Amino acid sequence: xxxxxxxxxxxxxxxxxxxxxxxxxxxxxxxxxxxxxxxxxxxxxxxxxxxxxxxxxxxxxxxxxxxxxxxxxxxxxxxxxxxxxxxxxxxxxxxxxxxxxxxxxxxxxxxxxxxxxxxxxxxxxxxxxxxxxxxxxxxxxxxxxxxxxxxxxxxxxxxxxxxxxxxxxxxxxxxxxxxxxxxxxxxxxxxxxxxxxxxxxxxxxxxxxxxxxxxxxxxxxxxxxxxxxxxxxxxxxxxxxxxxxxxxxxxxxxxxxxxxxxxxxxxxxxxxxxxxxxxxxxxxxxxxxxx
Length: 291
Hints:
mainly alpha, two-stranded antiparallel ribbon, disordered N terminus
């Protein structure tokens, strides 16, 4: 577009030029006083400058864009900073030029990977010349290292029950652990984590701690950050906050055995005694001993 050749001879040879005085006095319209350009000029076709469908703004903007050196920004923002028509009118004029083939805008990727808009000005619509594609950065195929599965870190130890836990107590501890996610969704435990933590909960229940108190101890003052290993946190709390055993209580003396009433075979009096005794105490003392 920066063509360094004149667009026309310095003077158009016409009847009007042969007699300039007659032209000025007897005809109307424009009169050209042309001087040959030797620098800073561009060749623009009359099909653009005299286009019958383009607006005056679109024609002027098309001529301006064709005169720009290669690489000059020609986006709406840059043109609005240069002219006073504003972004709305400039955008409409650019759409006119695009509709009639004087302008193309393409989004391309630079060698650095950035997406930019490239404006292509066509001085003769219909004579499209293919532009070489923007060189793309060479992509080297890197071999992805095979990552070996990392072994799972073991959970901290939890307190163990002092005696064999009954099935009902074990189920109570399991239900308590699986229900923690209702308090905090981050406390969703796997089956393996629940099995590991259940003995620690049973140890608390054996020490006469209610399920509500155990649940409160495990879910109060949790950190605000995401819990990467909730089971490890619960295991730590079960061990670190384990309450002491309940106070020692002396076992109560069992009540005396109370035998049923029966009738004495000797005096027919009622008395209490084991089934092996047939006589009351008085009859046993007075009755003769048999050898």
